[in-house]
Amino acid sequence: xxxxVELEGVRRAVGLLRVVGRKLYADGALGSHxxxxxxxxxxxxxxxxxxxxxxAALAAHVRAAARDRLRVAIHAIGDRAVEVALDALGTLAxxxxxxxxxxxxVIGANDAQRLAAAGVTASMQPIHATSDAAWVETRLGADRVxxxxxxxxxxxxxxxxxxxxxxxxxxxxPWLGLQAAVTRGEESGRPAPGGWSAxxxxxxxxLAAYTRGPARAVGAAGGVIAVGQxxxxxxxxxxxxxxxxxxxxxxxxxxxxxxxxWRGTR
Length: 266
What we know:
Elements: E1 2-3, E2 13-14, E3 17-18, E4 21-25, H1 55-67, E5 71-76, H2 79-90, E6 100-103, H3 111-118, E7 121-124, H4 127-132, H5 136-140, H6 151-157, E8 161-163, H7 174-183, H8 203-217, E9 233-236, E10 253-258, E11 261-265
Parallel strand pairs: 4-5, 5-6, 6-7, 7-8
Antiparallel strand pairs: 1-4, 2-3, 9-10, 10-11
Helix pairs in contact: 1-2, 2-3, 7-8
């Protein structure tokens, strides 16, 4: 499946709406055993998931998007899908900066370095780690789960992170995801999979991934509050850097400013 729009003769920006890229799919979902893995699922040894496209076909879709001057966002959840997606982007001959992989839930030992070298953004949804925590080790096994939701590993390698909610699959509130990024769900008292804590981020790092990261991913200015930057602001009821991590999900939005205009309150 290759979702996109034909853009010949069509404006790519109307008001606040901009068309910047094309969504492609490399694999399925981890919960349904559809994410493509390099080795079989621990709880279903007869399958390694599925690839939506053969590698050559995915690479052809990537090149077609590049010819249309579009960035691509490739849904790649399993480590095999991440590998195939990076191989497809590699056919652009060094022009991979600005493209992104969506979800990146399981990586291999060398994938963080490959993403960093290519300048590819890891577009991730931290809430998946806490949503999946009850069963993900069963799917992946104790060793491989340490490469799941690897925010700290990717950040340390220099991979640009862009965080989001994955709504409507998950709740739209970024504060739930931000808390997940900082705590990995450990405040819930539920036993965490092995190596889980090592991948936590600081509040400041997670905030940057929710602000600067998405702006960079779509080639836009902004994501920071500074003179000369677009006035896209969110006003909240408390300082997220000055509260306990397990209180981040209680932060309330009081209002928003978009393109310098007050757009509303709660």
